[in-house]
Each structure stands twice: as C-alpha cells, then as structure tokens.
Design a protein that fits this description.
The protein is mostly beta strands. It has 1 helix and 8 strands. The longest helix is centred in the first third of the chain and has 14 residues. The relative contact order is 0.22.
C-alpha cells in the first residue's frame, strides 16, 4: 500500500518547486524594508517568511508570516496573489505591544536561469511594503 501511495504522489512532487527568496524595498513606515521567504509551489503557493522594517522605533514591527495564494502563469510574467496571517513583533520586553494580523500580497515573477526575479507588494496593519528580490528555485 505504501508503494502505491508513493507512486501516486510522485507526479505531484516531481512538478512542485521549493524556492528561497530575499527582497529589499521600502514602505510607508520606514525607509528600508527586507524580506526573507521560503515557498512551496504547485499551482497553489504556500509562503512562510520574515519581513522587517529597518528602524529602531518600536512602532515599526518585524513580521513573521505564513500566506497562501495561487500562481497564475503567463508567457513572461507570473502573478501570485496571496493572503495570510502574520505575527507582528514590536518588542520582546513588552509582549502587550505584539499582535496578530491578516496580510495581503501580490508578487510579479519573471523566470531567470535557475531562479526568479520578483516584484512584491504587501499590506498589513496600515503598513504597505514594496520590494524587488530574487528567488532560488530548487
């Protein structure tokens, strides 16, 4: 039974992709923003990652998130709208400042040799982030 299950799942795993990405951008709350993400995609995309606004101010959080979306593939550009949930880390000392919020994002991706060049936008808790980055696909 295990062998049959593995044989049935093999085409799904063979066409799926994992990717590791990094982006640099800006936002309405800070001059610089960075993002690191790990993604699994097989038409549906599951992303997890860390987004940080480069600032010393407590009201500008770092966000740990998980989001899911669908990858619309085109001739040159792929579009990935996604929705998810993020943990906003404002302070490790004062836990009352931290919160959980919904997160919305759209990524435009262009296939390169062994990865993707992407433009990303995301919105959460009145913070709008725009960035450009690279993904290594394996």
């Amino acid at each position: 039974m295990k062998r049959i299950l593995i044989l049935l799942l093999l085409p799904t795993v063979a066409s799926a992709q994992f990717s590791l990405g990094m982006s640099l951008g800006t936002s309405n709350a800070a001059v610089f923003a960075t993002e690191f993400q790990l993604a699994y995609s097989h038409n549906w995309v599951i992303q997890t990652g860390y987004s940080s606004l480069v600032s010393r101010k407590v009201e500008k959080p770092s966000v740990f998130y998980i989001r899911t979306g669908y990858e619309f593939t085109g001739e040159v550009i792929d579009v990935v709208p996604a929705i998810g949930y993020g943990y906003h880390l404002h302070s490790t000392d004062n836990k009352a400042l931290n919160s959980h919020r919904f997160m919305y994002s759209v990524q435009l991706e262009r296939q390169m040799r062994e990865g993707k060049l992407y433009f990303t936008t995301s919105y959460t808790n009145r913070i709008f982030v725009v960035g450009i980055g690279i993904k290594y696909v394996f």
